[in-house]
Write a structure and sequence with these properties.
heterotrimer; A alpha+beta (156); B alpha+beta (739); C alpha+beta (287); B: 739 residues; alpha+beta; Aldehyde Oxidoreductase, domain 4; 24% strand; C: 287 residues; Enolase-like, domain 1; 3 domains; 11 helices; 14 strands
């Protein structure tokens, strides 16, 4: 057996799993840690449904080997809302129709959150570029763009 | 009545990552299932070989001989086997199923199974199938054939005063590419029978399929829809196969089995949009009026029938477009090939035929030297005229108004002049293209009567109202729409409405979630069921004619506490004026049509031959906008998907199976690729559907492809008659036109 | 996940020395950000074996300035390069290349060292690196050596790097501010796309408007990233006029023989390459 112990912080909680060193962090999160908000859409880093923050950086968890998550701070969609409220971007998606079938939504929210963290006045092009790694088949992205713009307004 | 627009009913759970899709369900003591597939496109299965390198005792193995009942998916034709018995008809066809408690072991074992197959010659094209090079299906490879006739075009071709034009068009396959792959969890017990939970659009389709496979009565098969991450038709009939596979494994294992496709498997081994070939022939008089029109419309159905006849039906009925011509004939055929079976995909035949029609309209306009908008308006159908199937248009149709709105919104006149000038000196060429079309919602002809959909409404002991229907939420907003409709009908807040999970144990068959029928047909039943519930309470004197929300809630609580179950059902009744002749293919094909004009603004880079859609304008008359955000969401999503159909998405086949089965090689548009999509609605006609709402889920799939390719021709002068038009294809067309 | 994970071994290198020791004594494949290797693993296309996680070696993550040269550690991600002032100032085509790689989440993980050593002919940074005359530092337990990047690729996925060597740094001389450059990636879409053609061009003129220096490089046009040495020689020393442009483009067409594959056709690739060269030369005149 080739399994190894990996320790990381998952949405604020210290987490320890025993898994294969090259297991995908996506599977560690979904199966070992049973946090299923993060989704698998393609397994090849194209669709972004598996997007999470690792030490504050947006990454595709389907492409991170479990061993590399050791000692890292992992945040998934489940960390966005507080006990009492949705995050600004979640609220904007809710009001403006940013989610339809919802499968791309967790990853899309992480990418949008990443944008809002780093750029308080993105252009339309900046928004498109920030979300270009998250494929959505339902919305045509239109209401996702609108949701991001509305979330920015809410900040002001 | 004031419209009540609730926010997405299941929105918060989706936004928080709490919504459970099928792969999110974790089995405590279950197995992981994998499908073992044919490497040959056609042949006779002689032997399945299991390598000694694996301890097969650890595995559950299922083959055709394990099927207790019928080895067919019940559909229009009983030709689609659950598992190969002897005959293989397409590459990737399921021969066996295996399951193991460990996912990695299950997948690894695939490499250790091989087959002895006696190959037979396969057929891959419509032409070869029609030519009967090999007979691969029944007697003559022909799944279905329709002829639509109005008047008689034959003598008109001889008229020397008319100009005759002919063109040929083709459309490729398209992958639905829902971001959530197909998946099922199957369970089996002697006591409960088969239970399936999965990603699906039509619980009762799966139910009807599994009963004969397992030889079980209706109450011993239960189908539960899990949150579904996109369907687009790809989860209309195909899930019946996946469900049968999961259930068979569960039956043999006596444990729950999870069967989830990975992306590469899903792309290579699931139904896609039917490829098509269309030939148009038209006679036009000196006033630019269409005097005769003949259309040949052919579909490649793949190896099994699935829904080919219905796709063909919708395709050929939509082929003559929203135009008036007294002498029209459509000859339609769907044929078999040894390709993975083609199946339902949003639009369902109409995007295929409308692409050809709307390209042809531009072609003919050019030939007769009329502006493409002018030529269309000159022939557009009016109230009081009949369609090619002889259906009388009884409502307001004003395409000029639809078009004008877009011309203003897009700053068309000014930009067109500007682009004509700029194109002369720039390597980036810009242009506009238009498509005018109509889309019939609901099942064709007597289809809805046949479905006989039922919706239930239940008063709960907490004083709320639960809507019982098998229609599924797959992102289109059905939960929210049904809530809104029920809330409006009852005069309460949408919060009072609960939408029951589509679980065949608890909800009646409201028909499949397809054909743009859910709001229009099923929504109307939600409305009438709610009205009946109110009437029942009024009959019991528990509420007055006018009542408040509190009073209604109280009445429900009282009823359930004192009298028991409060449930009311509403069943579909065919409106009296809908007559359809299935034999002659004439009459009222659809209860209602949405009328639409779509305008594409593109830029073509003549260095790289890349086409980018910069702006897209979509205007449609849909009777009643039930929910502005959801309605616009449908159009925006459909437009993006259809732009993919036009210029990005190419299914590459090898031996009848998709080989570019990765998201890196099958290209759907990203956030950087999609245009600004501008959506407009008109609400003129309100005589069908709740508040007069017309179905809209599929119509946005019809217009974009021809509009975009028309725009490319406008920008570059180059005519392309086949989609998808990749840069390589445009390059080739430009080279050919230079020769 | 199509690979059988028990057959894949991953060890973490705790320092550069540790990594070099391990690769000097065993057959092991380094993995940095994983954006190439993990795709293969998931697809069941990665041969099982031993892998070395080098992604924590901090000494390989710097970008420093030393006189006329900029040194870029192999573990700098595309995002690191995009956000770095020195790269923005001196090597904007590398920043462009980074921007065109995948999308944000990929850029946050993919490294320049990985991009070079994965040696996909369609890699995004290699054409820019060739234009900038980059040099590669290869390290092993016995020391380091420098090699011109244009001598690094020998054939399809065949590198001038020994099995016991690790690519540790890239060194590039600061660019002449009086230069014209153009990076153009032609992909299947505007993000998350593998190149069908990737062009990077750089040109410097002297006071007489004659070409003093020209670099023309191509991704996805051959078994590895290419430079058009012959066309460069043809152009160098001359003024750019219509005749030169036409001849150069013709020469390029004769020189290039791109393949047709699942993404594109050879005809298209060749024609677009010729169009891009023509466009580059015409546009450079106005500079």
């Amino acid at each position: 057996m080739n399994k190894t112990t990996v320790n990381f912080e998952l949405n604020g909680a210290p987490t320890q799993v025993s898994t294969y060193p090259m297991a995908r962090l996506l599977d560690v999160i979904r199966e070992d840690a049973q946090m299923t908000g993060t989704k698998e859409g393609c397994g090849e880093g194209e669709c972004g449904a598996c997007s999470i923050f690792m030490d504050g950086k947006l990454v595709n968890s389907c492409l991170v080997p479990a061993l590399q998550a050791n000692g890292k701070k992992i945040e998934t969609v489940e960390s966005l809302a507080s006990e009492s409220a949705l995050s600004k971007i979640q609220q904007a998606f809710f009001i403006h129709g940013g989610a339809q079938c919802g499968i791309c939504t967790p990853g899309m929210l992480m990418a949008a959150t990443d944008l809002l963290k780093t750029n308080s006045s993105p252009t339309d092009e900046d928004i498109r570029e920030a979300l270009a790694g998250n494929l959505c088949r339902c919305t045509g992205y239109t209401k996702i763009f609108k949701s991001v713009l509305e979330a920015l307004k809410a900040d002001q | 009545m004031k419209k009540k627009f609730g926010l997405r009913k299941e929105g918060i759970s989706k936004l928080k990552g709490e919504a459970k899709y099928i792969d999110d369900y974790q089995l405590s003591d279950g197995l992981y299932g994998v499908t073992v597939r044919s490497p040959e496109p056609r042949g006779i299965l002689k032997k399945i070989k299991f390598s000694e390198k694996i301890n097969w005792d650890e595995f559950i193995i299922v083959t055709a001989s394990d099927i207790p009942g019928k080895n067919f998916i019940s559909m229009i034709e009983m030709d689609w086997p659950v598992l190969v018995d002897k005959q293989i008809n397409h590459k990737g066809e399921a021969i066996a199923l295996i399951a193991h408690p460990d996912k990695l072991e299950a997948k690894r074992a695939l490499k250790f199974i091989s087959f002895d197959i006696e190959p037979l010659a396969p057929v891959y094209s419509i032409q070869d199938s029609l030519a009967k090079k090999e007979i691969i299906w029944r007697k003559d490879n022909l799944f279905k054939e329709y002829t639509i006739e109005k008047g008689n075009p034959d003598p008109i071709w001889e008229n020397p005063e008319l100009k005759i034009f002919t063109q040929h068009y083709s459309t490729g396959a398209q992958e639905q590419l829902y971001i959530e792959n197909n998946g099922m969890i199957g369970e089996y017990s002697k006591k409960d029978g088969v239970t399936i939970r999965g990603s699906l659009q039509c619980p009762y389709y799966v139910h009807s399929a599994l009963c004969p496979i397992f030889d079980l009565p209706e109450e011993k098969v239960r189908i539960i829809q899990a949150e579904t991450g996109g369907g687009f038709g790809g989860k209309e009939e195909f899930p019946s196969l996946v469900a049968a596979h999961a259930a068979l494994l569960a039956m043999k294992a006596n444990k729950p089995v999870k069967l989830i496709y990975d992306r590469a498997e899903d792309m290579a081994n699931s139904t896609k949009r039917h490829p098509s070939e269309s030939t148009h022939k038209m006679a036009v008089d000196k006033n630019g009026k269409i005097k005769a029109w003949e259309i040949d419309f052919y579909l490649d159905g793949g190896a099994y029938y699935t829904l080919s006849s219905v796709v063909l039906s919708r395709g050929c009925i939509h082929a003559p477009g929203p135009y008036f011509c007294e002498n029209t004939r459509v000859n339609a055929k769907a044929v078999a090939t040894n390709t993975f079976p083609h199946g339902a995909f949003r639009g369902f035949g109409a995007p295929q035929s409308i692409f050809a029609t709307e390209r042809f309209m531009d072609y003919v306009a050019k030939q007769v030297q009329m502006d493409p908008i002018e030529f269309r308006l000159n022939n557009i159908i009016q109230k009081g005229q009949t369609t090619a199937t002889g259906q009388l248009v009884e409502e307001k149709v004003d395409y000029k108004k639809l078009i004008d709105r877009l011309l203003i919104a897009s700053d068309f006149e000014k930009k067109k002049k500007q682009y004509e000038l700029e194109n002369k000196s720039s390597h980036i060429k810009k242009g506009f293209g238009i498509a005018t079309f109509m889309h019939g919602a609901g099942f064709t002809g007597s289809g809805e009567a046949y479905l006989a959909s039922v919706v239930g409404v239940r008063g709960t002991s907490e004083g709320k109202i639960e809507v019982l229907a098998s229609s599924v939420e797959m992102g289109q907003g059905k939960n929210t729409i049904f809530s809104s409709i029920a809330a409006e009908a009852l005069g309460v807040a949408p919060d009072m409405i609960i939408i029951a999970t589509p679980d065949t144990k608890f909800v009646p068959d409201s028909g499949p979630t397809v054909a743009s029928r859910t709001s229009m047909v099923v929504g109307a039943l939600v409305e009438s069921a709610c009205i009946s519930l109110v009437k029942k309470l009024q009959d019991e004197k528990l509420i007055e004619k006018k009542f408040s929300e509190e009073q209604l809630s109280s009445a429900i609580k009282t009823y359930t506490a004192t009298k028991g179950d409060l449930k009311v059902f509403s069943k579909y009744k065919q409106p009296p004026n809908i007559h359809w002749d299935d034999e002659k293919y004439q009459g009222s094909a659809y209860a209602t049509y949405a009328w639409a004009v779509y305008l594409a603004e593109v830029e073509v880079n003549t260095l790289t031959y890349d086409t980018k859609v910069i702006n897209f304008y979509a205007n449609q008359e849909i009777g009643n906008v039930l929910h502005p955000t959801l309605a616009a969401g449908q159009i925006e999503g459909g437009v993006a998907q259809a732009i993919g159909y036009a210029i990005y998405e190419k299914v590459r086949y090898q031996d009848g199976q998709m080989i570019n089965n990765q998201m890196t090689n099958y290209i759907m548009p990203t956030a950087l690729d999609v245009p600004n999509i501008h959506v407009f609605f008109e609400e003129w006609n309100q005589d069908y559907g709740p508040g007069g709402a017309k179905g809209i889920g599929e119509l946005p799939m019809d217009g974009p492809a021809p509009a975009v390719i028309n725009a490319v021709e406008n920008a570059t002068g180059v005519s392309v008659n086949s989609i998808p038009m990749l840069p390589e294809d445009l390059f080739q067309a430009m080279e050919n036109s230079n020769e | 996940m199509k690979s059988y994970l028990p057959e894949f071994h991953l060890t973490k290198a705790t320092s550069l020395k540790h990594a070099l020791d391990i690769i000097s004594t065993s057959t092991i494949t380094p993995i940095a950000g994983g954006t190439d290797i993990m795709v293969l693993l998931d697809a069941g296309k990665l041969p099982p074996g031993n892998f070395l996680d080098i992604n924590s070696i901090d000494s390989l993550k710097n970008i420093t300035e030393d006189g006329d040269y900029i040194y870029i550690g192999a573990l700098n991600t595309f995002t690191d390069i995009r956000e770095n002032n020195l790269c923005q100032q001196y090597f904007p085509m590398m920043c462009e290349a980074g921007r065109w790689s995948g999308a944000r989440a990929i850029q946050n993980r993919g490294t320049i060292g990985g991009n070079i050593c994965n040696a996909s002919p369609a890699g995004d940074t290699p054409p820019a690196l060739l234009c900038y005359d980059a040099e590669i530092e290869l390290s092993c337990v016995d020391g380091t050596r420098w090699i011109n990047y244009h001598e690094f690729h020998l054939d399809y996925k065949k590198l001038a790097k020994k099995p016991h060597e690790l690519l540790t740094k890239i060194r590039i001389k600061k660019t002449n501010p009086n230069r014209f450059e153009l990076y153009q990636k032609v992909g299947t879409r505007l993000a998350q796309a593998i190149s069908k053609i990737c062009f990077a061009g750089l040109i410097e003129f002297d006071a007489d408007k004659r070409v003093k220096k020209v670099r023309l490089s191509w991704g996805a046009m051959g078994p590895y990233v290419l430079r058009s040495f012959k066309v460069e020689d043809f152009i160098c020393g001359n003024k750019i006029d219509d005749a030169l442009i036409e001849s150069s483009v013709k020469q390029l067409g004769q020189e290039l023989s791109p393949i047709g594959d699942i993404r594109s056709s050879s005809d298209y690739r060749k024609h677009v390459a010729m169009n891009l060269l023509k466009h580059f030369l015409i546009t450079s005149k106005g500079h």
